[in-house]
Amino acid sequence: MATKVNADQMQKAKSGKGFIAALDQSGGSTPKALKLYGVEETEYNGEAEMFDLIHAMRSRIIQSPVFTSERILGAILFEMTMNRKIDGKGSAEYLWQHKQILPFLKIDNGLADEINGAQIMKPIPELSSRLESAKSHGVFGTKMRSVIKLANKTGVADVVRQQFEIGKEIVSAGLVPIIEPEVDIKSPEKSAAEVILKAEILAQLDSLNGEQDVMLKLTLPNESGFFDALVKHPRVIRVVALSGGYSREEANKQLARNRGVIASFSRALTEGLSAKQTESQFNGALDAAIQSIFEASNT
After folding, report:
1. What local confidence, expressed as pLDDT, does residue 27 receive?
2. Number of domains in the chain
3. Which domain holds residue 197?
4. Does residue 3 form part of some domain?
5. Coil, strand, or helix at residue 183?
6. Does residue 265 belong to any structural domain of this protein?
7. What's the confidence (pLDDT) of residue 299?
8. Which of 34, 82, 150, 165 sees the fewest Cβ atoms within 10 Å?
9. CA distances, 77 to each of 82, 183, 188, 192, 235 (Å)
C-alpha cells in the first residue's frame, strides 16, 4: 500500500506561487560553490570544514528574511543538509514548519559513465533507507539527475526509463519525485535531443496511473513553449527548469518565454552572494536575485 503524501504540501506544490531554490550542491561541486561565494580553498582544511562552511551558506540563505514562501515554493537539500540543523531545528523541518517552503531531497549518487551520448544515474542501493529518512524529516519530494549529451534515441530512452522506474518507487514511499533528465546546454544536438526527450517523457507519463504524480526538471528548451504538453499533462504536478550553466540574466530571459514553467535554479540563484557581505548587503543581493527569478517564473 502506497504511503500518502502530506495533503497540505501537495496543495502548495500544485497551486503555490514562486520557484524552487536548488541548494543541493554535493561533494564534487562544493568547492566551486564556496569559491563563487567568496570562500577560497585555502580558507578551510578538509571535508568536514568545507561542509560546515557550505551549511553556513545554505543556512544564511534559508534564514534570510527575504527567503519567504511568497516567492519561494520549495528548496532542494543535499542529504547532509537535511541531517543538520538550522536554528536548532532539522533543516527540512525548519523550511516547512517555520517558512512554509516545501523541502525536497537530492537522492542520486551522481552519474555513471557516458554511454550512447547519455549518462544514467549510478545505482542507489541506499534508496529505501534514504526515502525513509526523508519521510521522517517531513520532506515532500526528491530530486535525481541524469544528463543527455547527444540526440541518441537509445541513450535518451535509457535515461528516461531509469528516472521513471525509480520515480515509481519514490511515489510508493509517499514522496513526489522530481525527474531530471538534463540536456547539456553545450550539446551540438540540443534541439534534436529535446524532441526525442519529450516523446520519451510523454510515453512514460501516459503509462502512469492516477495515483502516480511527478514533477519534471528540464533544461530550458531551444524552442519557446516546447514543453507545453508536459506542463498540461494530468500526471505532472509542476515543470521546473534548471539554469544549466546559463547566467541568471540569460536563464531568466529564457524561462520567461516558457509559460507555466518555473525555475529551479542553483548557481543562478546564488550568483552575486558573498561570505564577505554584511547582512544588509547579502539580503539585498538575495532579494534582487529572488525577485528576478520569481518574475521570470510567474509568466
Report:
1. 62
2. 1
3. 21-29+60-297
4. no
5. strand
6. yes
7. 84
8. 165
9. 6, 22, 31, 32, 24
Q: Residue 36: beta bridge partners?
A: none
The CA–CA distances, whole Å, from 11 to 8, 58, 100 equal 5, 26, 12
3 state SS of 285:
helix
217: annotated active-site residue: yes
Residues 6+ apart with CB under 8 A from 186: 245
Helix, strand counts (H, E) of the chain: 13, 11
| pLDDT, position 29 | 80
- The CATH number that applies at residue 183 is 3.20.20.70
Distances (CA, A) of 131 to 42, 81, 147, 249: 36, 15, 23, 35
Give the phi and the psi of residue 111 in degrees, each rounded to 5: -100, 145
Q: Is residue 39 in some structural domain? A: no
What does the block give as the cell for 194? 529535446
- Is there a contact between 110 and 121 (Cβ–Cβ < 8 Å)? yes
Rounded-to-integer distance, Cα 289 and Cα 36, Å: 15
Residue 119 to residue 19: CA distance in whole angstroms: 27
Residue 7 covered by a domain: no
Instruction: Give the chain's residues under pLDDT 70.
Output: 1-3, 26-27
Pairing outcome for strands 214-219 and 141-148: unpaired
| H or E element that contains 220 | none
Between CA 20 and CA 143 the distance in angstroms is: 11
Catalytic residue, chosen from 180, 182, 194, 200, is: 180
Cell 542501493, located at residue: 125
Specify the pLDDT at position 2: 53
pLDDT, tens only, 95-139: 999 999 999 999 999 999 999 999 999 999 999 999 999 999 999
